[in-house]
Write a structure and sequence with these properties.
Length: 204
């Protein structure tokens, strides 16, 4: 396997297809059970228990379900920020106040996403978060995350770094998506922990 950026990127594309294929085989019951277990595991995280502001996202399709977790965080009194995709793939943010505060937005040829309907707070709002919950397709033993490939969260992580913000970075995945190794590029940043339906794993 080449360690050049091009080699890593083509390897990532191949891995993304494999992980998405496995996810797409999950039944409605599988998804519902995984979402309930995932919320239970995540709510045990001390970082989330302490967090005043959590930047999160609304799962779509066969992603590990996040709505139960979002509602539980809200019930705890946390401020929950959700992303809104901008035309350049960067993310703006808005507050989540319950399922009624979401709208399904179709982004051209990309996927339809549930986004907050309220005021936009600007891309820098994420720098206030104590915890950032990240989507992904896999994470490896070093905490390197394989994202969907749009680059939106690479921008978020770069923005946090520039601002000197140091929130806990937590990726939400299925158990089978914690793997030995994912290819990395120079801009990739490791996460602090992964939550799956069966538990939490931390990375140093």
């Amino acid at each position: 396997m080449s360690h050049t950026e091009g080699g890593a990127e083509s390897h990532k594309r191949m891995l993304r297809r494999e992980f998405i294929t496995v996810r797409n085989r999950l039944t409605t019951d599988d998804l519902r059970e995984a979402a309930t277990s995932l919320a239970g595991q995540a709510l045990r995280l001390p970082e989330l228990a302490r967090a005043r502001t959590v930047a999160a996202y609304v799962s779509v399709g066969s992603e590990p379900g996040t709505l139960a977790l979002l509602d539980a965080l809200l019930a705890r009194g946390a401020r929950v920020l959700l992303p809104a995709l901008l035309p350049d793939n960067d993310l703006d943010w808005g507050a989540y106040t319950g399922e009624g505060s979401l709208a399904l937005v179709q982004h051209g040829g990309k996927m339809a996403l549930f986004e907050p309907t309220g005021d936009r707070l600007g891309p820098d709002a994420v720098t206030d978060a104590d915890v950032v919950l990240l989507p992904g397709l896999a994470v490896d033993a070093r905490g390197m995350r394989l994202g969907r490939g749009g680059g939106s969260y690479d921008r978020v992580l770069a923005r946090l770094e520039r601002a000197g913000a140091d929130p806990s970075l937590v990726v939400l995945l299925y158990d089978s998506e914690v793997v030995a190794h994912v290819p990395e590029e120079p801009h990739d940043r490791p996460v602090h922990a992964v939550v799956t339906p069966s538990g939490v794993r931390r990375f140093t």
